[in-house]
Amino acid sequence: MNADSKNRFEELDAGRALGDLSTEEMSEWEILSRETKAKQSMDFDWLAAEIEINHLRTVHSPVRLRVV
Amino acid sequence: MHLRNFILFSEIRSFELALGIMPPAESLGAADTLILPLVAKGDENAMKQCIEAYGPLVWSIVCRRISHREEAEETCQDIFTEIWRVADRFDSEMSKESTFIGMIARRRSIDWQRKQNRLPSLSSLEGLPENTGSSTLAMHSIDRAELWAMLQKLPSDTLELFSLHFEKGLTHEQIADHTETPLGTVKTKLRRGLIEARKLVREFSNLKGAG
């Protein structure tokens, strides 16, 4: 796998953990994941969950959002 | 086991916790004791403890994304049913229990959001790592205050997007609307922010390990 594919998979995998993959990106993720299977991990899933839990008690939303 | 019989998420207290009326520290208070290994053995009392300890955490995560109360309750039922089913995959060497449960709650509630937008569930992805312990990050060894300090190294606009996504539970489309930023930019910044956060955690872990 070349560096471009690796970087692209990393970006898509982050998108997967964030829940924002489009249908086309899901297909692309599946193709690239077959090439990188040995290197797959749950890193982004763990991290996203940790950040979300962290935000349960520490972060306040921007002022302009509170108005919405 | 019929979880529906004793999960009472409609209780006023839980709802107040989710709405932030009660102190958030209390909503997370009972976390990080080792209950899941007992749940994995089929211990129903442990499952009740699990719901008692982590119910407020799950409810808070779900309510960020699902405003319809009945749907939120239904999703919570699904989350605890999944926890009952996959508790044996929890590895205390890899993460805290609350992280494991939070991850499941996030996935389920994000999939609910995607369903509303007619997008396929991400859990349907072929090749999704089933082993929840397959991580290069040792999240169990990182204190949440340390993680918070690490995140402060990210650019301020990334932190703002993190807040909208992780704290408010907004979809990326909603974030784009609220910030008047193109959707593609929002997606790219959030993804790169998460990649950068992983890099920071790795560096921190290496330093901690070396120390």
How many alpha or pi helices of chain A? 4
Number of domains of chain A: 1
What class, by secondary structure content of chain A? mainly alpha
Please tell me how large the radius of gyration of chain B is: 18 Å
SSE sequence of chain B, one letter per element: HHHHHHHHHH
Cα(first) to Cα(last) distance of chain B is 47 Å
How would you sum up the major sheet of chain A? none
- Poorly predicted sequence stretches spanning 5 or more consecutive residues of chain B: 4-13, 19-27
Can you tell me the number of structural domains of chain B? 2
Give the class-level CATH name of the largest domain in chain B.
Mainly Alpha
Q: What pattern of helices and strands is seen along the backbone of chain A? A: HHHH
Query: What portion of residues of chain A is helical?
Result: 55-70%
Mean pLDDT of chain A equals 78
Beta content of chain B: under 5%
Largest interface: A-B, 44 and 61 residues
Number of strands of chain B: 0
Characterize the biggest β-sheet of chain B.
none
Shape of chain A: elongated
Kindly describe this structure:
The complex is a heterodimer of chains A (68) and B (211). With 68 residues, chain A is mostly helical. Chain A has one domain. Chain A contains 4 helices and no strands. In chain A, helix 1 (3-18) crosses helix 2 (23-35). The model of chain A is unreliable at 58-68 (pLDDT under 50). The model of chain B is unreliable at 4-13 and 19-27 (pLDDT under 50). Chain B has 211 residues and is mostly helical. Chain B has 10 helices and no strands. Chain B has helices at 12-19, 24-28, 36-40, 44-65, 69-86, 97-116, 144-151, 156-167, 172-179, 183-210. Chain B has 2 domains: 1-121, Orthogonal Bundle (Rna Polymerase Sigma Factor, Chain: A), CATH 1.10.1740.10; 142-211, Arc Repressor Mutant, subunit A, CATH 1.10.10. Chains A and B meet through helix 1, helix 2 and helix 3 of A and helix 2, helix 4, helix 6, helix 7 and helix 8 of B.
